[in-house]
Every structure is written in C-alpha cells, then in structure tokens.
C-alpha cells in the first residue's frame, strides 16, 4: 500500500537519524521537517493540504497536531534505550537533576533510575499547565538541571535552568513509521473557535492572540506585526502567570525596535476556558543594533574554577562594581559572565555589546529595560570614551552590573572616577581539572545538537587530552571535542579515536602541542605536516622549511 507520511521532528538533531531510516522504506514517500508545538501544528496542516496520509511527531507536539488535523497522527513513543542513553548522559554532568514529564516518560524513567542507581529524582505531571509552576518550585529547591520532553525543556529554559532533552533513537523512529503503515484513518476534527468570534473581534481589536486550556493558539489576528512577536517560551510564561492569577494581566516588552504592551484576560466559557492577549505596538527610537545581543538567563557552560575565585567575582557583582575580566582568548570570560548572571540576576536579561561591530555613539539609544548585566567586548575598538563612560555611570546608577572582557589592560580613560576591579583568568593549561568537566559538557552539547553517539570518555583518552596545551584555551578544546564526537562510533571515547583525529586533521601542530614532546618529536611533527600540505613534494617542503633537500632527506630518515 502506497503511503505518504510526513515526520515533524520537535528538534533539529533528530533529522540525521530520520534520514538514515529512509532507505528502509523504498515504497513510501516520507518527508520530514522541524517544528515544535504551534509551529509543528502549522507544518502538519500544510502537509495535510499537500496530501499526506499520516503525520508522525512526538510528545506535546503530537498531542497538539492530533487536535488540529483530520489525518492520523502517530506519537513517536520513547523506548527504554532512549531513556537509558539520555538519563546516563544527564547524570554524568553531576548537577542536581530532576526528571519532569507525563507518566509515559516518568514511569519508565523511575525503573531505569532504580536499576542503575542514578542520582536523579522523578516528578510526574498530568497536564502541561502543571509543568511551569513545578519547574519554578524545583529551581527554588536547588535543582540545576531538568530532564524531559520539549514542553518541559522550554519551561525549564524560561526559568534560567539547564534543560536536557530526552531524544528519540533509531528504534523509536522505525517503530513509529511501521505503526503509521497500519494506522491510516481519519481523526475527528474539533475546532474551539467559530466564525462568529472572528466577526466580533475584527471590528474592535487589531492585534489579538487566544489560547485554549492546552496552550494551543486557537485564534490569532496581528494587523501591526509581520509575524507573531513572541515565541512559545514567552507565551508560556504569560499563560502560567495568567492561569495562576485568573485576573487581568499587564506586561511590557521591547522587541525588534518596537515597544509592545500586553493586556491579558482569562475567560471561562461554557465548556472551556481561554486566555486572550491584546497587543499594542508603538515604535521605539533605535539606532543600528548590530553587535548587541540580549538574552534571558540560560544554563551556562560548567565552571570548575576555584570556589574562592568565583565567590570574589560574585561579591563584586552583588555590589554592582565594574569587573574587568583579563585573560587570553578562550579562558572562559563569557562562561564566567553567564554563570554569575544566571546565579544572581533574578531572571533579568544579559546584554552583550561587541564594539567590533557596535558604535559607541549609539550607547545612549540602548534600552536598559529589564537588563541586569552588561558584558562589554572588544573595547579596544572604542575611539571615543565619553559615550562609554556616560553609559557606565547610567548602568551603575540603575543597578546594572558591568563586566569588561579583554586580553590586556584597559585604557585609563575608561570611567576614571569609577573603580574598576581587574580579575585575571588563568589559561586552561593551569586549570587541568577543568578539562574533564568541560569535555563531558561538550559531549552532551554535541549529542543534543548533532545526535552524536559518545556519552563518556575513557581515562587514558582523558589523560591524552590533559597532556596537551591549547593556545586558544577552551575555544580549541571545544573544537577538538567536536571533531572527536563526530568521529567516535562508540558510546565511550577511545584513545585511538583522539589519535586518529590528531593524525587526520593535523591538530598536533596546528592547535595542540604536546607538553611532553621532545624538540626532535616536535620537529618531526612540523616536517610531516608541511610535507603533507605540499602534497609530498620534497623540493617545495624544503623551501618552506628553509633547509636544503639533503637535510630534509636526512631528517625524514631519522
């Protein structure tokens, strides 16, 4: 039976696994795309119009799609293998961790946790509305990491915690496709809104978004916006607050050069309840914001620096003193800024200004609404210090904490009347204890981003990593771990994989230099690398190295 199926993945890193499964179904037309929650619903509706016989998705996205289309929707259930892989990775990061989700996730998770004796706690919810309040409670109890599905992860990130997504593996995808082949039938379609509501609203309100009890957008009209100005996480936060209060909600946002006022209402209908948001937009005077990035709290890379060192920085931050982080490239300045901000900023925003792209004359145009931390980069590009000093004084006056990152001493012309505290960040070569923690974090990151296999690293492989120095510190380590993760086929990184990556990519001379290598070994590395780059032409190699062919021949024979 010919079948046209479309898979809607709730996250990007599922796509490589889907592509690998396609050759197993030559008689089926299987398409795929990425879309979570409301975006997934939009994609499903489009594919229904294009003739799809069934939709495959996962978790909350599948639940929403089932209520929005008339074709079968197959929920890609998690397998025990998926749970073991994800829970093992999450437990490796050593943070206080909880699993939050519906019973289809938590029941299996509890069995695995008990069997493997993992240091994880399980919390079960019945409705999606319970997720955000529970996450906030867990944050207050000291949890740093939450494991769950996409709905859980979105809520977790909105509260500034680390979210670890439980990903679906090959087995789960194959099972879902096989189920789709047997379950082609139409589902009953139900629509909570009708044409009468639209006729009433169009005359009175220009910009309105309405959610049902399942946090699904059932009506949207946005005359003053090219697209919806808020993302799912922002709406989820608004929905949570309005659900708890069940009163009129007022909020203000500064988004993409516009000031947006939000008025929210809770409405109890005869059969259901709805949350309605009326948006009012007005222009805000802005200059070119290239080089400026603002973000809410998010879980940063791991910090393994000395506790006393971190506490010193935290004390300066609490007193809103200007902190100058001085260190070589890649020593973790931005890591430290993210960590301190997430720990102490009370859900405020972090604004990063890169003066390599941003003009200091535009500082006075920046809005500091809800900004708690400012991180200044590449201040050596500044030509006029007066606008910067005025900006620093304004930040200090308004309780905004300032970090300045640089590789060298900053100019005395910066905030001469303000005390600037310089903190020196040591190179990674002086912080060997960080390498294991950073390696496991990067492995987790690449597993989530690219779906890589490796979950841990063997002790002898770790020793090999620790045996090298990294000229660009954490930046080099991160790039190196990426290559290792992409090339490792096992669940634990082997020493041989690292050696192969070093040999294939020439990293032993370009990025990593062994601290234990002799002068003769380093000389041989350089000769072999140059010979390879010159396509093994000995004449050109000798010319590049500044020696004659006879000397090159002798050294190759040694």
From TrEMBL:
Molecular function as annotated in GO:
ATP binding; phosphorelay response regulator activity; sequence-specific DNA binding
- What highest taxon heads this organism's lineage? Bacteria
InterPro entries attached to this UniProt entry = AAA_lid_NorR, Homeodomain-like_sf, HTH_Fis, P-loop_NTPase, Sig_transdc_resp-reg_PrpR_N, Sigma_54_int
Biological process GO terms, please?
A: regulation of DNA-templated transcription
Q: Which Gene3D superfamilies does this UniProt record tie to the protein?
A: 1.10.8.60, 3.40.50.2300, Homeodomain-like, P-loop containing nucleotide triphosphate hydrolases, PrpR receptor domain-like
| Stretch forming the signal peptide | none
Give the record's keywords alphabetically: ATP-binding, Nucleotide-binding, Transcription, Transcription regulation
Q: Which PROSITE patterns match?
A: SIGMA54_INTERACT_4
Task: Answer yes or no on keyword Transcription.
Answer: yes
Ranges for domain Sigma-54 factor interaction come to 405-486
Q: Does the keyword ATP-binding apply?
A: yes
| Name of this chain's protein | Sigma-54 factor interaction domain-containing protein
The lineage, from the top, is: Bacteria, Bacillati, Bacillota, Bacilli, Bacillales
């Amino acid at each position: 039976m010919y079948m046209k199926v479309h898979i809607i993945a709730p996250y990007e890193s599922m796509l490589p696994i889907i592509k690998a499964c396609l050759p197993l179904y030559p008689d089926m037309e299987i398409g795929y795309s990425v879309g979570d929650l409301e975006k997934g619903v939009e994609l499903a509706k489009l594919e229904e119009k294009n003739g799809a016989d069934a939709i495959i998705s996962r978790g909350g996205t599948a639940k929403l799609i089932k209520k929005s289309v008339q074709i079968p929707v197959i929920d890609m259930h998690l397998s025990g293998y998926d749970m073991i892989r994800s829970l093992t990775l999450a437990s490796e990061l050593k943070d206080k961790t909880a699993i939050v989700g519906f019973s289809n996730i938590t029941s299996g998770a509890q069995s695995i946790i008990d069997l493997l004796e993992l240091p994880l706690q399980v919390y079960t919810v019945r409705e999606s509305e319970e997720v955000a309040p529970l996450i906030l409670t867990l944050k207050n109890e000291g949890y740093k990491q939450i494991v769950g599905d996409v709905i859980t992860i979105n809520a977790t990130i909105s509260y500034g915690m680390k979210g670890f997504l439980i990903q679906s593996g090959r087995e789960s995808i194959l099972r879902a496709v096989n189920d789709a082949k047997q379950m082609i039938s139409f589902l009953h379609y139900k629509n909570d809104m009708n044409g009468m509501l639209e006729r009433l609203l169009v005359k009175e309100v220009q910009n309105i978004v309405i959610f049902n009890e399942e946090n699904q957008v059932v009506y949207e009209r946005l005359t003053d916006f090219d697209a919806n100005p808020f993302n799912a996480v922002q709406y989820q936060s608004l929905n949570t607050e309005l659900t708890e209060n069940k009163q009129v909600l007022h909020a203000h946002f500064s988004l993409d050069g516009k000031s947006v006022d939000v008025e929210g209402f809770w409405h109890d209908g005869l059969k259901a309840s709805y949350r309605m948001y009326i948006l009012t937009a007005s222009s805000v005077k802005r200059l070119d914001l290239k080089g400026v990035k603002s973000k809410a709290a998010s879980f940063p890379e791991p910090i393994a620096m000395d506790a006393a060192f971190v506490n010193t920085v935290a004390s300066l931050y609490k007193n809103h003193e200007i902190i100058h982080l001085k260190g070589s490239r890649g020593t973790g300045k931005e890591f430290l800024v993210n960590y301190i901000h997430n720990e102490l900023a009370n859900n405020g925003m972090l604004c990063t200004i890169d003066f390599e792209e941003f003009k200091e004359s535009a500082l006075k145009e920046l809005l500091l609404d809800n900004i708690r931390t400012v991180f200044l980069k590449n201040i050596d590009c500044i030509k006029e210090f007066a606008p910067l000093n005025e900006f620093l004084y304004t930040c200090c006056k308004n309780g905004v904490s300032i970090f300045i990152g640089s590789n060298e001493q900053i100019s005395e012309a910066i905030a001469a009347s303000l005390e600037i505290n310089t903190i020196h960040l040591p190179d990674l070569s002086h912080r060997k204890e960080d390498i294991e923690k950073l390696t496991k974090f990067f492995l987790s990151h690449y597993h989530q981003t690219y779906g890589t296999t490796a979950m841990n690293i063997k002790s002898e492989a770790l020793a090999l990593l620790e045996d090298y120095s990294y000229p660009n510190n954490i930046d080099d380590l991160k790039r190196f771990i990426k290559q290792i993760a992409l090339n490792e086929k096992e669940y634990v990184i082997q020493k041989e994989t690292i050696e192969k990556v070093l040999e294939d990519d020439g990293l032993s001379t370009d990025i990593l230099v062994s601290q234990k290598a002799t002068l003769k070994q380093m000389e041989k590395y350089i000769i072999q690398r140059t010979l390879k780059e010159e396509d093994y032409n000995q004449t050109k190699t000798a010319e590049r190295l500044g020696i004659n062919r006879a000397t090159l021949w002798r050294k190759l024979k040694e």
